[in-house]
Amino acid sequence: MKRYTIGLMFIFLIDCGATIDSTTSPNTKPLRNYNKIYVNIVNSSGAVSRSTISSAELGIHSQHFMQSDNQMKQALELFQFELMKIGFQFVGQKSEANAIIDFTIGQIRHDPLTGWIADQATVKILNSNNGQIIAYFKTETRFITPTIKTLIKKLSTEIMNIY
């Protein structure tokens, strides 16, 4: 039991989530000048998750089925929510935007212990007038593959820090 507790403490000490790295282009306006944004989903990949619980004696059968595409949509909605809290507003047409966000999330899959996880996520913010990269954000797995929510929180926190 003592070894198990020490192992868990070690995992929490090294932060089993994700790291984030970001960069901004020199000679560009601050992000707060690009409030109207349009979001592109550049890439996402994943798998199908299926879990079944059955008890023949009780006559109970339950099945859960979800594809990673659904999780990608939920991740995008969470990301948009976090950006709206910062001060961004979303537009329906690229022509109305000050900036375009290219959003990529790595392979999405289901982990029975932690839920939906992904290897990495990236956000590239582009000037809608000339296509110049304004800022670039990238998360990386640290020790244990992070949940999608962790990746989104890391990205939005870093974006808020340079907003």
Strand tally is 9
As a percent range, the share of strand residues is: 35-45%
CATH class: Alpha Beta
C-alpha geometry: globular
Encode the helix/strand succession as letters.
HEEEEHEEEEEH
What profile does the largest beta sheet have? Answer: 7 strands, mixed
Number of helices, counting only DSSP H or I runs of 4 residues or more: 3
Helix content: 25-40%
Work out the count of structural domains: 1
- Second-tier CATH architecture: 2-Layer Sandwich
Q: Key features?
A:
3 helices, seven-stranded mixed sheet, Double Stranded RNA Binding Domain, 9 strands, two-stranded antiparallel sheet, alpha+beta, about 40% strand
Please explain how this structure is put together.
With 163 residues, the protein is α+β, with helices and mostly antiparallel strands. It has one domain (17-162): Double Stranded RNA Binding Domain, CATH 3.30.160. The chain contains 3 helices and 9 strands. The protein has helices at residues 2-13, 68-86, 148-162; strands at residues 18-24, 36-46, 48-55, 60-67, 89-90, 99-111, 115-118, 121-127, 133-141. Strands 1, 2, 5, 6, 7, 8 and 9 form a 7-stranded mixed sheet that branches. Strands 3-4 form a two-stranded antiparallel ribbon. α2 runs parallel beside α3.
